[in-house]
Structures are given as structure tokens and as C-alpha cells.
Amino acid sequence: MRSFAFVDLVSLVTAVQWTVLLVVLALVFGAPLGLALATARISRHAPLRWAASGIIQLIQGVPLLGLLFFFYFGMPVFLGLQVPALIAVTVAYTLYTAGFLGDIWRGSLQAVKQAQWEAGACLGLSLTQQFFHIIGPQALRMATPPTVGFLVQLIKGTSLASIVGFVELARAGQVTSAATFQPLLTYSVVAAIYFALCLPLTLWSRSLEARLNGAR
Amino acid sequence: MALVEIRDVYKKFGHVEVLKGVSLDVAEGEIVTIIGRSGSGKSTLLRCINALETIEGGEIRVEGRQIHAKMPDLRQFRQRVGIVFQAFNLFPHLNVERNVTLAPLLTGGIGKAEARALAEDVLTRVGLADKIDAWPEQLSGGQQQRVAIARCLAMKPHLMLFDEVTSALDPELVGEVLKVMEAMARQGMTMILVTHEMGFARNVANRIVFMHQGRVWEEGPPAELFAHPKTPELKSFIASVK
Ligand SMILES: Nc1ncnc2c1ncn2[C@@H]1O[C@H](COP(=O)(O)OP(=O)(O)O)[C@@H](O)[C@H]1O
Ligand SMILES: [Mg+2]
To answer: Given pLDDT bands bounded at 50, 70 and 90, which one contains residue A166?
Structure first.
């Protein structure tokens, strides 16, 4: 046994980069997929809407832990695929992100009045132009606070990756706590780091919201 | 050849027949006002002319070409037909200049350099040159509706459709919008408009069309139609709006 030392703090902060990596990967793959799901949900083609709705329901209905277990333990069993932990975990978080962002963005898109699409159509704009120049920008405003809210949830959610052996911040905390027998101190530091990651996002979201409601 | 030819048009919503064989010609430069009770199919007819609704029977031709929602150059067609609704439907995230120039910029009508001048031009025509940098929410209803008209004018339309464009306005704001429409009429714009402003219909329109239960019930020059309505339905309608 040894006491909590500077080296422990360094190892925790180092583990943060894995947490950040997981978040970045989840967003890089999950956000476009979420946008695709959101647009499919409001499509004119019923089968597309049903498919997207089903996927979103499924992802939201399964606990994140279930997704992680499925891709980490399940894929090798069911598909005979031996995938590296990082890929399994990335797939799980990507789907998780796509499911939730897809639903948030669907709601924001639908909150823009139908007449706005029509106003664009009447001016001879294509559906794509209506989406990117009229509906999207208005939906973006409404989507920002809940999107950042989800981001905070995602950052904290990456701690679950520790359960399948991924050494991100939470797992590093477990290791340090076991080595130092100072769980209270260790986990306080871990919590403080999560907080430090999430706080700027929350503040940024607030200022963005204020700016969107104010000047524009 | 009439600019707009509507032949025996039928339109249903579900099982409800809303247009039951409507025929109507509108010549170039003509101002046609459609009047009638709520639910008689006036809005639906306007929306069919712009292919916002698909029709079940008959045909609609504009500039000789048959109009339908699947026509390959629907977008080009819509650029030449302006439509203004009761709800102004300005784009709340864009200022007045961008509201007016968004479509011309996107559809390749103009370049960035000409956008400002175009906005100034059309806003001057609706008397709002000083509001070019304002945001929609800063404008009164009458001003927003005039911006909506300017937004259509920026596309240089050959035909304008107006659906009760003053109905949502406070009474004191109605006049400023009607004035703009009168000026457009004087400049030779072809206009089909649905309105409850009987004074405007009487003074500006070349022809009044009275719609009843999805049909053109009676039509004629305003003076004649108002003075000598032939059908009891029009008589009672005129009595009710006086
Ligand atoms: N999108 C729609 N779906 C179903 N019914 C509609 C729709 N639009 C209009 N109707 C019905 O069609 C009839 C005519 O409507 P409309 O053309 O708006 O009449 P008006 O403009 O003369 O008041 C009304 O009975 C209305 O309820
Ligand atoms: Mg109507």
C-alpha cells in the first residue's frame, strides 16, 4: 500500500484522454448517423420513417451497458468476429449517440412549422435547399441545449466502458483506488475531472442559448 | 390564350370533394378576385394553381403548360408564380434582406454583389426600404406581409396569388398592404386573389368570381356582380359581408 501521490493524479489525468477519445469517436460516427436517422424520421417515405423510428426505439430501449456487452462479448460469439475492444466500444457508443441525437434532432426539425417548408417550396427551392437554409438553421437553435445536455450524459456514460475493461477515467480511478486504498480521495478527484469536462459545455450551452434568444 | 386556364378541376381531401369541376381563365394583366364563404374551396384552388395540391380531375395550364406536382421543372415554374398567404411565413432566422434574397441567390437568379441592390429595389416597391436590416420579429404584421410580398417580387413573378393576405392583420394595418397590391395591379401584374375586402375587390379587380360549395357559382365585372347578383347564394353572401 502507498498513499495517493502526484503520480496517481497524472495517471488519472492521462486516462482522461481515453474518455475524450471515446466521446470524440462517438460523436464523429454517431452525429452523422443521428442526422441521418432524424431526417429519415421526417421523410415522406413511410418505410424510411418506420425503420428510423424502430432503430431509435431499440437503441433508447436498451441500456447503454447492454449495448456495450452486446458488442464486446456478443459480436465474437454471434458473428465469430474477434474485434479489438476499442472498436466494440466505439460501435456501442456510436449507436447510443445516434439514437439519442437522432431523436433530439427529429424533435427540433418537427418543431419548425410546416409552413416554413412550404414557403421555401413556393419560392422554387429544392427540398435540400429548404432543409439546409430554412429548416436546419431554425432547428439548430432549438436543438442546441438538449444536444449539449446529451453530450454531458455521453461524457459521464463513457465510464461504463470500464466494465468491459477499457481503461478510461473511471477505470483508472478504480485502479488507483485499489493501489492507494484511498477511494474517497481518488473518486473525489475522478468526479472533479468529470465535472471539469462537463462544466464548460454546460456554460457554453447557456451562453449560446442566451445569444440565440437575445440578438437573434 | 389566357395566362391561366383552369378546366373542370376536381379535388378531394379523403372522401370530401372540395373542388367540383372548377373552370376559370385569367388573362395576362388581369386582376381576378375570388370571393365566397369559408370552406367554399378558394384556398384550395389557389394552392392547385401553384401545384401545392394535386388534382384528381381536369387540368390547369399556366402560360400554356400543364401544371402538376410531378412536372420536371416544377421549381422553375414556382419561381415565376408568387404566392402570399394569410400567415406571412417569413424566415425568422434571417433578416429582411436575407429573407428577400435567399431564393434568388440559391436559384441562381443573382450573384452576391447584386443581392443588396435587388433587396433595396423590391423593398422600395413595398415601402420598406428603411427596414432592410431589420428582423421579422421587429416588424408589425402589415410590414411583415409587405416583406412577404417583396420576397415574391424578388423572383420577378409573372403571376401573383394572394390568399386572404390581410385577414390576419389589425384593421389599421390592412390599408398599407392593399396599397402595395393596388400598385402592383397598376403596373400590370396578373393577380388572382382571395379576399374579404369587398371595397378592394370592387375597385381594383377586373372580374369577381364567387365560389360556392366547390364550384364557380357566378362571375362577372365587379359593378355588375355586386349590383345585380343572379343567384340567391351570392345575394345572401353580399348581404352578409356588407
Ligand atoms: N389539407 C386539407 N385536408 C383536408 N381537408 C382540407 C384541407 N384543406 C382544406 N380542406 C377542406 O376543404 C374545404 C375547402 O377549404 P378551403 O379551400 O380552405 O376553403 P376556403 O379557402 O374557401 O375557406 C374545407 O371544407 C376544408 O376543411
Ligand atoms: Mg381559405
So the answer is: confident
Looking at the domain assignment, is residue A1 inside a domain? no
Domain ranges of chain B: 91-157
> Could you tell me how many residues make up chain B?
242
The domain that holds A152 is classified in CATH as: 1.10.3720.10
Nearest CB to A124: which of B79, B85, B87? B79
Separation between Cα atoms, residue B105 and residue A132, nearest integer Å: 14
Q: What pLDDT is stored for residue B86 in this prediction?
A: 93
Q: From ligand 1's centre to the CA of A211, what distance in Å?
A: 40
**Structural domain tally of chain A?**
1
Inter-residue contact A120 to B99 (CB < 8 Å) = no
Name the phi and psi angles at B4, rounded to 5. -120, 125
- Which run of H or E residues covers position B21? strand B16-26
Distance B192 CA to ligand 2 centre (A): 13
pLDDT of residue A213: 67
**Residue of B11, B15, B42, B44 best suited for mutating to test ligand 1, as the one with most atoms within 8 Å of CB:** B44
Specify if A12 maps to a domain: yes
Q: Which atom belonging to ligand 1 lies closest to the Cα atom of B214?
A: 14
- Please give the share of chain B, as a percent, with pLDDT higher than 90: 76
Whether residue A22 is predicted with pLDDT greater than 60 in this model: the reply is: yes
CB-based pocket (< 6 A), ligand 1: B 13, 18, 36, 38-44
